[in-house]
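Supplementary Methods S3. Input chains for the assembly prediction are listed below.
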Amino acid sequence: MISLKKTPRYFWSLSSVKFNFIYCLFTMAAYNIPFIKAVYLHDHSIAGTVLTVLSIFALLNIAVSVLFIPRLVKPLAVFFCLLNTTGLYFMRAYGVVIDKIMLLNVIQTDVYEVQDLLNLRMLADLLLFGIFPSWLILKTKIIFQPFKKDAAVKIVSGAIFALIAAAIIGFGLWQNQEVLKERKYLKNSLIPVNGIGAVISVVKIKVNYIGIKLKKISGGAHMLPAAHNGKPALIVVVIGESARDANFSLSGYERPTNEPLIRQKDRLVYFDNFYSCGTATAVSLPCIFSPYPRKKFKPESEKYNENVLDIIDHAGYKLLWRENNTDCKDNCNRIEQERFCNVKECADEILLRNFSSKIRSTGKPTMVVLHQRGSHGPLYALRYPPEFEIYKPVCRQEYLPNCTREEIINAYDNSIYYTSHMLSKTIDELKALSGEYDTALFFTSDHGESLGENGLYIHSAPYETAPDEQKHIPTLLWLSEGFSEANGLDLDCIRKLSSQPFSHDNVFHTLLGMSRVVTPFYDPALDMLNSCRKNPLPAFGRTAP
Ligand SMILES: [Zn+2]
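Predicted structure tokens for the full assembly:
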């Protein structure tokens, strides 16, 4: 007989109650420092923060004692260690919170964007907060009592924790109901509640749309003839990425980030009081084209609803979507799409490849959407060709807190400068085509961006609590002389309106007005240009969607 000495399977043993207690302590201490900070910043009270953390610790203990049954305890404990670490990394790197919008954005992200976010710091976090504790869990012998005894112990400990939580929450409600109500956004910082809540919300959204057929709104749409000159219209809609009003010199920013647009100034209008529909691409991009205003817009509904592009297409325009971002996120499903970039990163000028020959081949009124890579974070320095590195030094790291604020802003401003260059070049293309077409350009960003203000980076903050930088976005309009004349649009009049409050809610109706497409869904009151049009478009039989 040969006997082999095995290395011990377990380092130590713990009763299930002790294991749960230690696991909850670890969850609070290792993953929830951002949450504890957020509570303190919200309440400005050490006692309030301690009581909040204590009540959550008690509730977490109850949840864990229900979920951590003999066969599931280790797989679940390890799974949450890895999930929590990923959530914690993003929260610390960008000051973001985890909610359904964040998760929708993650689901829609492509492999290159993921590469942008992966780095050594993330690997170190994963080893320290994910893999190492998981290994310790696997090396722990967890001893469960016989079922009845285990249940009895859990009921008693659960009751104690429930009493603690109820007493604290009850006390809080009695003290100040309003404060507690305001606190609902704090749950987006609480790991793993935020992750679980986001998953449940996204699953609910997806399930809601199962079996739903495309809702058509394009029927009956038709084009009015232009006022005179008989040239077809050519409208270019440029959708920016993460551009914010605060860094546009057209809005008063001290750096000349819009310098390349100066030569187009005579026919350009900048709207300096314009707000986005969301703070993330997954919401804003479909919302821009949707007939629904921000307050009624539901993320993912774009998959099952026609949008303004479908209406304009149905009315007789040639529609074309050129993509240099992740993808069109279901906004161009029924129109022609082109994508030229086959490598990791292409500068946005690629959107203008063979532009005039492509337009000339259509021979009819045309609307082109150019979807930019723009100023997508966190690696702003990758968003422009080297010759556009005007402001230096720049941040070249994914983990933004490792860069100085100046480096981050320099890289971001270079990307805005490059966007101005790309817009100006697009206008040059339109000028070259103005003998054959009445041309116009409409630019709006999808959402803004935080560059370290109050510890926040990138975007995706919940709309209600998001800082202005993530919602106040640049929007501009350029009209050729021919387009203004054919549509009876008075440029000076539009300039006078340019500081009025507008938002993405106006885009659907403004694009219909610019295209001279008549549909019951058109609301002249929301068309930004309608009051400056000599012959306003008819708003017959309007039916709200
Ligand atoms: Zn975006």
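The mean pLDDT is 90. Residues 12-207 form one domain.
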